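Supplementary Note 3. Input sequence used for the single-chain structure prediction.
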Amino acid sequence: MNYICNPLNINYRYQFNADPRRHGEMQICREAADPSMICFEGRYYIFASMTLGVWVSDDLAHWENHRLPDELPLYDYAPDVRVMNGWVYFCASSREHNCDRWRTRNILEGPYERIEGNFPFWDPNLFLDDDGRIYFYWGCSNETPVYGVELDPQTMLPLGEKTALVEGHPHEIGYERIGEDNSILPASEEEVEARFRAFLDRSHMTEEMLPPGTKPLIRGMLTDRPYIEGAWMDKHCGRYYLQYAAPGTQYNTYSDGVYVSDRPLGPFVLAGNNPYSYKPGGFMPGAGHGSTMQDDQGNWWHTSTMRISKNHDFERRVGLWPAGFDEDGELYCNQRYGDWPMRVSGFRQDPWRDPEWMLLSAGKSAAASSETEGHDAGKATDENAQTWWRAATNSREEWLTVDLGKVFDVHAIQVNFADDQLDVPCPGVIRPGSQARYIDEEDRVTRWKLEGSTDGQNWSVIEDKTDAQTDLTHDFIVREEGFAARYLRLSGMEAAFGQNPCISGLRIFGLGDGEKPAVPDFTAARQGDLDMDVRIEEQPDALGYNILFGSTPDKLYHSYMVFTAGTQRVGALIKDREYYVRVDAFNENGITEGRTVRL
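The predicted structure, written as C-alpha coordinates, is reproduced below.
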Protein backbone atom coordinates (compact mmCIF):
# COMPACT_ATOMS: atom_id res chain seq x y z
CA MET A 1 0.00 0.00 0.00
CA ASN A 2 1.01 3.63 -0.46
CA TYR A 3 1.02 5.98 2.53
CA ILE A 4 1.64 9.65 3.10
CA CYS A 5 2.07 11.73 6.24
CA ASN A 6 1.59 15.48 5.96
CA PRO A 7 3.41 17.62 5.18
CA LEU A 8 4.17 15.80 1.96
CA ASN A 9 7.58 14.15 1.72
CA ILE A 10 8.98 16.30 -1.09
CA ASN A 11 11.90 18.67 -1.50
CA TYR A 12 11.21 22.23 -0.36
CA ARG A 13 13.51 24.87 -1.85
CA TYR A 14 15.38 27.46 0.19
CA GLN A 15 14.34 31.05 -0.40
CA PHE A 16 16.75 33.94 0.16
CA ASN A 17 14.24 36.75 0.71
CA ALA A 18 15.33 40.39 0.49
CA ASP A 19 11.99 41.90 1.46
CA PRO A 20 11.91 45.66 0.71
CA ARG A 21 9.52 46.11 3.63
CA ARG A 22 12.44 45.01 5.83
CA HIS A 23 14.91 47.33 4.13
CA GLY A 24 16.45 44.44 2.20
CA GLU A 25 17.21 42.38 5.31
CA MET A 26 17.82 38.77 4.24
CA GLN A 27 15.47 36.10 5.55
CA ILE A 28 16.11 32.46 4.71
CA CYS A 29 13.63 29.63 4.86
CA ARG A 30 12.25 26.73 2.87
CA GLU A 31 8.95 27.38 1.14
CA ALA A 32 6.29 25.80 -1.03
CA ALA A 33 2.66 26.87 -1.07
CA ASP A 34 -0.52 27.49 -3.06
CA PRO A 35 -0.53 24.06 -4.75
CA SER A 36 -2.42 23.35 -7.97
CA MET A 37 -2.79 19.59 -8.41
CA ILE A 38 -3.98 17.96 -11.62
CA CYS A 39 -4.23 14.48 -13.10
CA PHE A 40 -2.90 14.44 -16.68
CA GLU A 41 -2.49 11.33 -18.82
CA GLY A 42 -2.53 9.02 -15.80
CA ARG A 43 -0.01 10.90 -13.66
CA TYR A 44 -0.42 13.44 -10.85
CA TYR A 45 1.28 16.83 -10.88
CA ILE A 46 1.59 19.42 -8.12
CA PHE A 47 2.66 22.92 -9.10
CA ALA A 48 3.46 25.08 -6.05
CA SER A 49 4.84 28.55 -5.46
CA MET A 50 8.59 29.11 -5.35
CA THR A 51 9.71 25.59 -6.24
CA LEU A 52 11.13 26.17 -9.76
CA GLY A 53 9.61 22.86 -10.77
CA VAL A 54 6.74 20.44 -10.60
CA TRP A 55 6.28 17.38 -8.41
CA VAL A 56 5.19 14.27 -10.31
CA SER A 57 3.70 11.04 -8.98
CA ASP A 58 2.11 7.85 -10.24
CA ASP A 59 0.43 7.02 -6.92
CA LEU A 60 0.03 10.26 -4.84
CA ALA A 61 2.59 8.91 -2.36
CA HIS A 62 5.97 9.02 -4.11
CA TRP A 63 6.85 12.35 -5.68
CA GLU A 64 9.74 13.41 -7.90
CA ASN A 65 10.79 16.97 -8.67
CA HIS A 66 11.26 18.07 -12.27
CA ARG A 67 12.66 21.48 -13.21
CA LEU A 68 10.38 23.63 -15.36
CA PRO A 69 11.57 25.82 -18.26
CA ASP A 70 12.96 29.25 -17.39
CA GLU A 71 10.53 31.04 -19.71
CA LEU A 72 7.70 30.23 -17.30
CA PRO A 73 7.11 32.76 -14.47
CA LEU A 74 8.68 30.56 -11.81
CA TYR A 75 9.38 33.49 -9.48
CA ASP A 76 5.72 34.52 -9.48
CA TYR A 77 3.35 33.25 -6.81
CA ALA A 78 0.37 30.91 -6.97
CA PRO A 79 0.89 28.97 -10.21
CA ASP A 80 -2.41 27.90 -11.71
CA VAL A 81 -2.56 24.78 -13.87
CA ARG A 82 -5.57 23.28 -15.66
CA VAL A 83 -6.13 20.60 -18.27
CA MET A 84 -8.25 21.73 -21.21
CA ASN A 85 -8.85 19.81 -24.42
CA GLY A 86 -5.60 17.86 -24.22
CA TRP A 87 -3.52 20.89 -23.28
CA VAL A 88 -2.11 21.89 -19.90
CA TYR A 89 -2.46 25.65 -19.31
CA PHE A 90 -0.10 27.43 -16.90
CA CYS A 91 0.00 30.95 -15.46
CA ALA A 92 1.06 32.71 -12.25
CA SER A 93 0.65 36.02 -10.42
CA SER A 94 1.89 39.54 -11.01
CA ARG A 95 0.60 42.96 -10.02
CA GLU A 96 3.31 44.78 -11.95
CA HIS A 97 2.66 43.63 -15.51
CA ASN A 98 0.19 41.79 -17.73
CA CYS A 99 0.21 38.08 -16.99
CA ASP A 100 0.85 35.74 -19.90
CA ARG A 101 -0.23 32.13 -20.13
CA TRP A 102 1.57 29.11 -21.47
CA ARG A 103 0.26 25.79 -22.70
CA THR A 104 1.84 22.43 -23.45
CA ARG A 105 0.93 18.85 -24.29
CA ASN A 106 3.97 17.52 -22.43
CA ILE A 107 4.55 18.96 -18.96
CA LEU A 108 8.03 17.55 -18.46
CA GLU A 109 9.45 17.83 -21.97
CA GLY A 110 7.60 20.81 -23.40
CA PRO A 111 7.59 22.85 -25.50
CA TYR A 112 5.51 25.56 -23.82
CA GLU A 113 3.55 27.83 -26.13
CA ARG A 114 3.12 31.43 -24.90
CA ILE A 115 -0.31 33.14 -24.97
CA GLU A 116 -0.02 36.89 -24.46
CA GLY A 117 -2.07 38.34 -21.61
CA ASN A 118 -3.65 41.75 -21.34
CA PHE A 119 -4.10 42.46 -17.61
CA PRO A 120 -2.32 41.83 -14.29
CA PHE A 121 -3.79 39.44 -11.74
CA TRP A 122 -2.92 37.59 -8.55
CA ASP A 123 -3.89 34.08 -7.42
CA PRO A 124 -5.33 32.96 -10.76
CA ASN A 125 -7.60 30.01 -11.50
CA LEU A 126 -8.78 28.85 -14.91
CA PHE A 127 -11.91 26.72 -15.28
CA LEU A 128 -13.30 24.84 -18.29
CA ASP A 129 -17.03 24.26 -18.06
CA ASP A 130 -18.58 21.14 -19.59
CA ASP A 131 -20.19 23.25 -22.31
CA GLY A 132 -16.74 24.34 -23.55
CA ARG A 133 -16.91 27.86 -22.13
CA ILE A 134 -13.92 29.08 -20.12
CA TYR A 135 -13.96 31.18 -16.95
CA PHE A 136 -11.22 32.82 -14.97
CA TYR A 137 -11.09 33.71 -11.26
CA TRP A 138 -8.49 35.74 -9.40
CA GLY A 139 -7.82 37.95 -6.38
CA CYS A 140 -5.54 38.20 -3.34
CA SER A 141 -6.12 41.19 -1.11
CA ASN A 142 -7.56 42.38 2.17
CA GLU A 143 -9.11 45.30 0.29
CA THR A 144 -10.56 43.87 -2.94
CA PRO A 145 -12.66 40.73 -3.66
CA VAL A 146 -12.13 37.62 -5.72
CA TYR A 147 -13.22 38.39 -9.26
CA GLY A 148 -14.46 36.27 -12.15
CA VAL A 149 -14.82 36.75 -15.90
CA GLU A 150 -15.51 34.64 -18.97
CA LEU A 151 -12.59 34.22 -21.41
CA ASP A 152 -12.49 33.79 -25.14
CA PRO A 153 -11.39 30.16 -25.66
CA GLN A 154 -9.21 31.11 -28.63
CA THR A 155 -7.44 34.25 -27.40
CA MET A 156 -7.87 33.66 -23.63
CA LEU A 157 -8.82 37.34 -23.31
CA PRO A 158 -11.78 38.55 -21.21
CA LEU A 159 -15.27 38.65 -22.63
CA GLY A 160 -16.96 41.53 -20.83
CA GLU A 161 -16.24 43.13 -17.48
CA LYS A 162 -15.03 41.37 -14.36
CA THR A 163 -17.57 40.47 -11.66
CA ALA A 164 -16.91 40.69 -7.92
CA LEU A 165 -17.72 37.25 -6.47
CA VAL A 166 -16.29 36.77 -2.96
CA GLU A 167 -15.66 39.47 -0.36
CA GLY A 168 -14.51 39.20 3.23
CA HIS A 169 -17.09 39.39 6.02
CA PRO A 170 -15.07 38.89 9.22
CA HIS A 171 -17.84 40.28 11.45
CA GLU A 172 -20.18 37.50 10.29
CA ILE A 173 -17.79 34.70 9.25
CA GLY A 174 -15.56 33.73 12.15
CA TYR A 175 -12.96 31.79 10.21
CA GLU A 176 -12.18 34.90 8.15
CA ARG A 177 -10.83 36.80 11.16
CA ILE A 178 -7.04 37.10 11.31
CA GLY A 179 -4.84 36.02 14.22
CA GLU A 180 -4.17 32.74 15.94
CA ASP A 181 -7.49 30.95 16.43
CA ASN A 182 -9.27 33.76 14.49
CA SER A 183 -8.84 36.14 17.41
CA ILE A 184 -8.74 39.64 15.83
CA LEU A 185 -11.44 41.77 14.26
CA PRO A 186 -10.57 44.54 11.74
CA ALA A 187 -9.39 47.94 12.96
CA SER A 188 -11.11 51.22 12.18
CA GLU A 189 -9.72 53.56 9.51
CA GLU A 190 -8.55 55.94 12.24
CA GLU A 191 -6.65 53.15 13.97
CA VAL A 192 -5.07 52.04 10.67
CA GLU A 193 -3.80 55.57 10.00
CA ALA A 194 -2.36 55.80 13.51
CA ARG A 195 -0.62 52.45 13.06
CA PHE A 196 0.79 53.52 9.70
CA ARG A 197 2.26 56.71 11.19
CA ALA A 198 3.72 54.71 14.08
CA PHE A 199 5.28 52.31 11.57
CA LEU A 200 6.96 55.20 9.77
CA ASP A 201 8.24 56.60 13.06
CA ARG A 202 9.70 53.25 14.12
CA SER A 203 11.34 52.88 10.73
CA HIS A 204 12.72 56.44 10.78
CA MET A 205 11.11 57.02 7.41
CA THR A 206 8.78 59.42 5.73
CA GLU A 207 5.99 58.39 3.40
CA GLU A 208 8.00 59.68 0.44
CA MET A 209 10.87 57.33 1.27
CA LEU A 210 8.78 54.18 0.80
CA PRO A 211 9.48 52.11 -2.33
CA PRO A 212 6.83 52.47 -5.06
CA GLY A 213 3.72 50.46 -4.37
CA THR A 214 4.72 49.73 -0.77
CA LYS A 215 2.31 52.04 1.06
CA PRO A 216 -0.91 50.11 0.29
CA LEU A 217 0.82 46.84 1.18
CA ILE A 218 1.90 48.21 4.55
CA ARG A 219 -1.48 49.75 5.26
CA GLY A 220 -3.09 46.48 4.24
CA MET A 221 -1.04 44.62 6.83
CA LEU A 222 -2.15 47.12 9.49
CA THR A 223 -5.91 46.89 8.86
CA ASP A 224 -6.49 43.53 10.50
CA ARG A 225 -8.77 42.71 7.58
CA PRO A 226 -8.50 39.17 6.22
CA TYR A 227 -6.90 38.31 2.93
CA ILE A 228 -9.48 36.83 0.57
CA GLU A 229 -7.48 34.89 -2.00
CA GLY A 230 -6.61 31.60 -3.64
CA ALA A 231 -9.62 30.91 -5.86
CA TRP A 232 -10.28 27.40 -7.20
CA MET A 233 -13.40 26.24 -9.04
CA ASP A 234 -14.93 22.75 -9.22
CA LYS A 235 -18.24 21.70 -10.73
CA HIS A 236 -20.22 18.82 -9.28
CA CYS A 237 -23.72 17.65 -10.25
CA GLY A 238 -24.43 20.88 -12.08
CA ARG A 239 -23.36 23.20 -9.25
CA TYR A 240 -20.34 25.48 -9.14
CA TYR A 241 -18.09 25.43 -6.06
CA LEU A 242 -15.93 28.55 -5.84
CA GLN A 243 -13.29 27.95 -3.21
CA TYR A 244 -11.20 30.66 -1.57
CA ALA A 245 -8.64 31.05 1.21
CA ALA A 246 -8.69 33.24 4.33
CA PRO A 247 -7.56 34.94 6.54
CA GLY A 248 -3.75 34.82 6.04
CA THR A 249 -1.10 32.21 5.43
CA GLN A 250 0.85 32.90 8.66
CA TYR A 251 -2.02 31.90 10.98
CA ASN A 252 -2.89 28.45 12.29
CA THR A 253 -6.40 29.03 10.95
CA TYR A 254 -5.44 29.50 7.30
CA SER A 255 -8.33 27.70 5.66
CA ASP A 256 -10.38 27.26 2.52
CA GLY A 257 -14.02 28.27 2.38
CA VAL A 258 -16.49 27.68 -0.45
CA TYR A 259 -19.38 29.52 -2.11
CA VAL A 260 -21.88 27.75 -4.38
CA SER A 261 -24.00 28.77 -7.35
CA ASP A 262 -25.93 27.38 -10.29
CA ARG A 263 -23.93 29.67 -12.60
CA PRO A 264 -20.16 30.03 -13.08
CA LEU A 265 -20.26 33.79 -12.41
CA GLY A 266 -22.88 33.65 -9.71
CA PRO A 267 -24.56 34.99 -7.79
CA PHE A 268 -22.82 32.83 -5.17
CA VAL A 269 -23.97 32.03 -1.64
CA LEU A 270 -21.88 30.81 1.25
CA ALA A 271 -22.08 27.01 1.43
CA GLY A 272 -23.51 25.28 4.47
CA ASN A 273 -20.24 23.55 5.30
CA ASN A 274 -17.56 26.17 5.98
CA PRO A 275 -14.66 26.38 6.20
CA TYR A 276 -14.50 23.11 4.33
CA SER A 277 -10.68 22.83 4.65
CA TYR A 278 -9.59 23.75 8.20
CA LYS A 279 -6.75 22.39 10.33
CA PRO A 280 -5.82 24.71 13.22
CA GLY A 281 -4.31 22.05 15.51
CA GLY A 282 -1.85 19.16 15.43
CA PHE A 283 1.83 19.08 14.55
CA MET A 284 1.63 21.42 11.56
CA PRO A 285 -1.55 23.52 11.18
CA GLY A 286 -2.95 25.33 8.18
CA ALA A 287 -4.98 24.07 5.24
CA GLY A 288 -5.59 27.09 3.02
CA HIS A 289 -5.09 28.13 -0.61
CA GLY A 290 -5.21 24.89 -2.50
CA SER A 291 -6.97 22.85 -5.14
CA THR A 292 -9.50 20.02 -5.28
CA MET A 293 -9.45 17.19 -7.83
CA GLN A 294 -10.32 13.53 -8.48
CA ASP A 295 -7.88 10.67 -8.80
CA ASP A 296 -8.14 7.77 -11.25
CA GLN A 297 -10.31 5.81 -8.81
CA GLY A 298 -12.88 8.59 -8.45
CA ASN A 299 -11.63 9.71 -5.03
CA TRP A 300 -11.57 13.44 -4.34
CA TRP A 301 -8.46 15.07 -2.85
CA HIS A 302 -7.68 18.52 -1.56
CA THR A 303 -4.13 19.84 -1.42
CA SER A 304 -3.28 23.12 0.26
CA THR A 305 -0.78 25.14 2.26
CA MET A 306 0.48 24.24 5.75
CA ARG A 307 2.15 26.71 8.08
CA ILE A 308 5.48 26.90 9.94
CA SER A 309 6.12 30.69 9.71
CA LYS A 310 9.03 30.97 12.13
CA ASN A 311 11.95 32.08 9.97
CA HIS A 312 9.60 33.99 7.64
CA ASP A 313 5.83 34.39 7.40
CA PHE A 314 6.01 32.45 4.12
CA GLU A 315 7.84 29.44 5.60
CA ARG A 316 5.26 26.92 4.41
CA ARG A 317 4.69 23.35 3.29
CA VAL A 318 2.13 21.35 1.26
CA GLY A 319 -0.50 18.94 2.58
CA LEU A 320 -2.93 16.50 0.94
CA TRP A 321 -6.23 15.25 2.37
CA PRO A 322 -9.26 13.18 1.33
CA ALA A 323 -12.21 15.29 0.25
CA GLY A 324 -15.58 14.82 -1.41
CA PHE A 325 -19.22 15.83 -1.74
CA ASP A 326 -21.89 14.46 0.57
CA GLU A 327 -25.41 13.43 -0.41
CA ASP A 328 -26.60 17.04 -0.03
CA GLY A 329 -23.88 18.36 -2.30
CA GLU A 330 -21.75 19.80 0.52
CA LEU A 331 -18.02 19.91 -0.24
CA TYR A 332 -15.94 18.56 2.67
CA CYS A 333 -12.37 17.68 3.54
CA ASN A 334 -11.30 15.27 6.30
CA GLN A 335 -8.49 16.71 8.46
CA ARG A 336 -9.39 15.07 11.77
CA TYR A 337 -5.97 13.37 11.95
CA GLY A 338 -4.59 15.41 9.10
CA ASP A 339 -0.87 15.02 9.80
CA TRP A 340 -0.94 11.33 10.67
CA PRO A 341 -0.21 8.50 8.19
CA MET A 342 -2.94 7.70 5.70
CA ARG A 343 -3.30 5.34 2.76
CA VAL A 344 -3.65 6.86 -0.68
CA SER A 345 -4.25 5.71 -4.27
CA GLY A 346 -5.17 2.44 -5.90
CA PHE A 347 -8.52 1.89 -4.20
CA ARG A 348 -11.94 3.41 -3.69
CA GLN A 349 -11.55 4.93 -0.25
CA ASP A 350 -13.77 5.86 2.66
CA PRO A 351 -12.68 9.47 3.21
CA TRP A 352 -13.80 9.36 6.87
CA ARG A 353 -12.03 6.18 7.92
CA ASP A 354 -10.00 6.34 11.13
CA PRO A 355 -6.22 6.19 10.91
CA GLU A 356 -4.69 2.71 10.86
CA TRP A 357 -1.87 3.69 13.23
CA MET A 358 -1.89 5.91 16.27
CA LEU A 359 0.59 8.57 17.36
CA LEU A 360 3.01 7.03 19.88
CA SER A 361 5.60 9.76 20.41
CA ALA A 362 3.62 12.81 21.57
CA GLY A 363 4.90 14.05 24.92
CA LYS A 364 7.22 11.08 25.36
CA SER A 365 10.61 11.39 27.00
CA ALA A 366 13.50 12.37 24.74
CA ALA A 367 17.23 12.59 25.34
CA ALA A 368 20.06 13.91 23.20
CA SER A 369 23.83 14.03 22.96
CA SER A 370 23.65 17.82 23.47
CA GLU A 371 21.15 20.66 23.54
CA THR A 372 21.07 24.41 23.07
CA GLU A 373 19.18 26.99 25.12
CA GLY A 374 15.48 26.94 24.30
CA HIS A 375 15.86 23.89 22.09
CA ASP A 376 15.90 20.89 24.42
CA ALA A 377 15.28 17.32 23.33
CA GLY A 378 11.66 17.45 24.47
CA LYS A 379 10.88 19.85 21.62
CA ALA A 380 11.18 16.88 19.23
CA THR A 381 8.11 15.22 20.77
CA ASP A 382 5.89 18.21 21.64
CA GLU A 383 3.88 17.98 18.36
CA ASN A 384 4.68 21.54 17.36
CA ALA A 385 6.45 22.28 14.08
CA GLN A 386 7.38 25.75 15.39
CA THR A 387 9.69 24.33 18.07
CA TRP A 388 12.70 22.03 17.71
CA TRP A 389 15.61 20.31 19.38
CA ARG A 390 18.93 21.79 18.29
CA ALA A 391 22.24 20.04 18.80
CA ALA A 392 25.19 22.05 20.13
CA THR A 393 27.40 21.08 17.17
CA ASN A 394 27.06 19.89 13.59
CA SER A 395 29.06 16.74 14.30
CA ARG A 396 27.59 13.56 12.90
CA GLU A 397 28.19 12.05 16.35
CA GLU A 398 25.18 13.95 17.69
CA TRP A 399 22.11 11.84 18.44
CA LEU A 400 18.50 12.08 19.59
CA THR A 401 16.56 9.29 21.33
CA VAL A 402 12.85 8.95 22.07
CA ASP A 403 11.59 6.59 24.78
CA LEU A 404 8.00 5.47 24.10
CA GLY A 405 7.65 4.24 27.68
CA LYS A 406 7.05 0.62 26.74
CA VAL A 407 7.37 -1.65 23.72
CA PHE A 408 4.96 -0.84 20.89
CA ASP A 409 4.25 -2.24 17.46
CA VAL A 410 5.78 0.56 15.34
CA HIS A 411 4.69 1.02 11.72
CA ALA A 412 5.81 4.49 10.59
CA ILE A 413 8.21 7.29 11.47
CA GLN A 414 8.31 10.86 10.22
CA VAL A 415 11.67 12.66 10.59
CA ASN A 416 11.17 16.44 10.50
CA PHE A 417 14.21 18.72 10.19
CA ALA A 418 13.89 22.43 11.02
CA ASP A 419 15.95 25.51 10.18
CA ASP A 420 17.23 27.66 13.02
CA GLN A 421 17.83 31.27 11.95
CA LEU A 422 20.15 30.55 9.06
CA ASP A 423 22.83 33.13 8.34
CA VAL A 424 24.64 32.07 5.17
CA PRO A 425 25.59 33.95 2.01
CA CYS A 426 23.07 33.93 -0.81
CA PRO A 427 24.34 31.42 -3.40
CA GLY A 428 22.86 33.33 -6.35
CA VAL A 429 21.60 36.66 -7.59
CA ILE A 430 18.56 38.22 -5.93
CA ARG A 431 15.78 38.93 -8.39
CA PRO A 432 14.41 42.43 -7.75
CA GLY A 433 10.78 43.33 -7.24
CA SER A 434 8.16 43.36 -4.50
CA GLN A 435 9.04 39.71 -3.85
CA ALA A 436 12.81 40.14 -4.19
CA ARG A 437 14.52 36.82 -3.64
CA TYR A 438 16.75 34.03 -4.89
CA ILE A 439 15.44 30.46 -4.99
CA ASP A 440 18.19 27.95 -4.29
CA GLU A 441 18.22 25.27 -6.98
CA GLU A 442 20.69 22.94 -5.29
CA ASP A 443 19.48 19.81 -3.53
CA ARG A 444 20.73 20.37 0.01
CA VAL A 445 20.99 16.77 1.11
CA THR A 446 19.60 15.71 4.48
CA ARG A 447 21.19 12.62 6.02
CA TRP A 448 20.54 10.50 9.07
CA LYS A 449 20.32 6.99 10.48
CA LEU A 450 17.35 5.64 12.43
CA GLU A 451 17.63 2.70 14.83
CA GLY A 452 15.20 0.91 17.10
CA SER A 453 15.53 -1.03 20.33
CA THR A 454 13.30 -2.79 22.82
CA ASP A 455 15.71 -2.44 25.78
CA GLY A 456 17.93 0.57 25.03
CA GLN A 457 20.99 -1.67 24.78
CA ASN A 458 20.62 -3.67 21.61
CA TRP A 459 19.89 -1.67 18.48
CA SER A 460 18.87 -2.57 14.96
CA VAL A 461 18.89 -0.29 11.93
CA ILE A 462 15.46 0.75 10.64
CA GLU A 463 16.69 3.07 7.89
CA ASP A 464 20.19 4.26 7.01
CA LYS A 465 20.33 7.46 4.98
CA THR A 466 23.79 8.57 6.04
CA ASP A 467 24.88 8.57 2.38
CA ALA A 468 21.58 9.81 0.92
CA GLN A 469 21.53 12.26 -1.96
CA THR A 470 17.95 13.36 -1.29
CA ASP A 471 16.70 16.74 -0.07
CA LEU A 472 13.85 15.53 2.15
CA THR A 473 13.31 17.38 5.41
CA HIS A 474 10.00 15.68 6.29
CA ASP A 475 11.05 12.16 5.40
CA PHE A 476 8.54 9.39 6.01
CA ILE A 477 9.34 5.72 6.57
CA VAL A 478 6.69 2.98 6.55
CA ARG A 479 6.95 -0.61 7.79
CA GLU A 480 3.56 -2.12 7.06
CA GLU A 481 4.45 -5.36 8.82
CA GLY A 482 5.51 -3.42 11.93
CA PHE A 483 8.37 -4.00 14.35
CA ALA A 484 8.69 -4.01 18.12
CA ALA A 485 10.44 -1.01 19.69
CA ARG A 486 10.46 1.10 22.80
CA TYR A 487 13.39 3.34 21.88
CA LEU A 488 14.04 5.13 18.58
CA ARG A 489 17.42 6.76 17.98
CA LEU A 490 18.32 9.27 15.29
CA SER A 491 22.03 9.75 14.58
CA GLY A 492 24.53 10.41 11.80
CA MET A 493 22.68 13.61 10.94
CA GLU A 494 23.74 16.10 8.30
CA ALA A 495 21.71 19.21 7.52
CA ALA A 496 21.85 21.89 4.82
CA PHE A 497 24.61 24.54 4.91
CA GLY A 498 26.42 22.70 7.70
CA GLN A 499 23.72 23.57 10.25
CA ASN A 500 23.61 21.98 13.65
CA PRO A 501 20.86 19.38 13.26
CA CYS A 502 17.42 20.62 14.35
CA ILE A 503 14.50 18.21 14.71
CA SER A 504 11.01 19.65 15.07
CA GLY A 505 9.40 16.24 15.22
CA LEU A 506 10.64 12.67 15.51
CA ARG A 507 7.11 11.40 15.12
CA ILE A 508 6.41 7.71 15.66
CA PHE A 509 3.20 5.86 14.75
CA GLY A 510 1.97 2.37 15.50
CA LEU A 511 -0.34 0.42 17.77
CA GLY A 512 -0.55 -0.31 21.44
CA ASP A 513 -2.19 -3.32 23.03
CA GLY A 514 -3.89 -1.54 25.91
CA GLU A 515 -7.28 0.04 26.46
CA LYS A 516 -8.65 2.93 24.50
CA PRO A 517 -9.43 6.06 26.53
CA ALA A 518 -12.70 6.52 28.34
CA VAL A 519 -15.47 8.59 26.82
CA PRO A 520 -14.36 12.22 27.33
CA ASP A 521 -16.32 14.59 29.52
CA PHE A 522 -16.72 18.07 28.05
CA THR A 523 -18.95 21.12 27.82
CA ALA A 524 -19.37 23.47 24.86
CA ALA A 525 -20.82 26.98 24.99
CA ARG A 526 -21.19 29.63 22.31
CA GLN A 527 -19.47 32.91 23.06
CA GLY A 528 -21.09 35.57 20.93
CA ASP A 529 -21.78 35.05 17.25
CA LEU A 530 -18.47 33.62 16.07
CA ASP A 531 -16.82 31.73 18.93
CA MET A 532 -17.31 28.76 21.16
CA ASP A 533 -15.47 27.55 24.24
CA VAL A 534 -15.00 23.81 24.59
CA ARG A 535 -13.94 22.73 28.06
CA ILE A 536 -12.53 19.20 28.26
CA GLU A 537 -12.08 17.45 31.58
CA GLU A 538 -8.64 15.91 31.92
CA GLN A 539 -8.47 12.13 31.83
CA PRO A 540 -5.22 10.26 32.50
CA ASP A 541 -5.79 7.60 29.84
CA ALA A 542 -6.01 10.11 26.96
CA LEU A 543 -3.08 11.33 24.89
CA GLY A 544 -5.16 14.04 23.22
CA TYR A 545 -8.58 15.10 22.02
CA ASN A 546 -10.27 15.98 18.76
CA ILE A 547 -12.96 18.67 18.88
CA LEU A 548 -15.41 17.96 16.05
CA PHE A 549 -18.19 20.32 15.03
CA GLY A 550 -20.59 20.88 12.18
CA SER A 551 -24.06 21.83 11.05
CA THR A 552 -25.84 18.56 11.97
CA PRO A 553 -24.96 15.63 14.24
CA ASP A 554 -23.95 13.54 11.21
CA LYS A 555 -21.92 16.31 9.53
CA LEU A 556 -19.18 17.04 12.07
CA TYR A 557 -16.82 17.91 9.24
CA HIS A 558 -14.61 20.41 11.13
CA SER A 559 -11.95 19.42 13.67
CA TYR A 560 -9.46 20.94 16.09
CA MET A 561 -6.89 18.58 17.65
CA VAL A 562 -5.52 19.44 21.10
CA PHE A 563 -3.11 17.57 23.36
CA THR A 564 -4.12 19.09 26.68
CA ALA A 565 -7.42 19.24 28.51
CA GLY A 566 -8.97 22.50 29.66
CA THR A 567 -10.73 25.20 27.66
CA GLN A 568 -10.11 25.61 23.94
CA ARG A 569 -11.59 28.57 22.12
CA VAL A 570 -12.73 27.83 18.56
CA GLY A 571 -13.30 30.96 16.49
CA ALA A 572 -14.48 29.56 13.15
CA LEU A 573 -18.25 29.82 13.60
CA ILE A 574 -20.62 31.67 11.27
CA LYS A 575 -23.19 34.11 12.61
CA ASP A 576 -26.77 32.83 12.95
CA ARG A 577 -25.85 29.22 12.14
CA GLU A 578 -26.54 26.23 14.34
CA TYR A 579 -23.76 23.87 15.42
CA TYR A 580 -23.27 20.47 16.98
CA VAL A 581 -20.12 19.48 18.86
CA ARG A 582 -18.43 16.21 19.79
CA VAL A 583 -15.11 15.56 21.52
CA ASP A 584 -13.25 12.32 20.82
CA ALA A 585 -10.35 11.11 22.95
CA PHE A 586 -7.37 9.17 21.61
CA ASN A 587 -4.29 7.44 22.89
CA GLU A 588 -1.75 4.94 21.57
CA ASN A 589 -4.41 2.22 21.48
CA GLY A 590 -7.20 3.88 19.56
CA ILE A 591 -9.97 6.48 19.43
CA THR A 592 -13.06 6.75 21.64
CA GLU A 593 -15.97 8.79 20.32
CA GLY A 594 -17.66 11.20 22.68
CA ARG A 595 -21.27 12.25 22.82
CA THR A 596 -22.67 14.87 20.46
CA VAL A 597 -24.25 18.02 21.91
CA ARG A 598 -26.10 20.91 20.37
CA LEU A 599 -24.31 24.21 20.84
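The longest helix spans residues 189-203. DSSP finds two helices and 41 strands in the chain.
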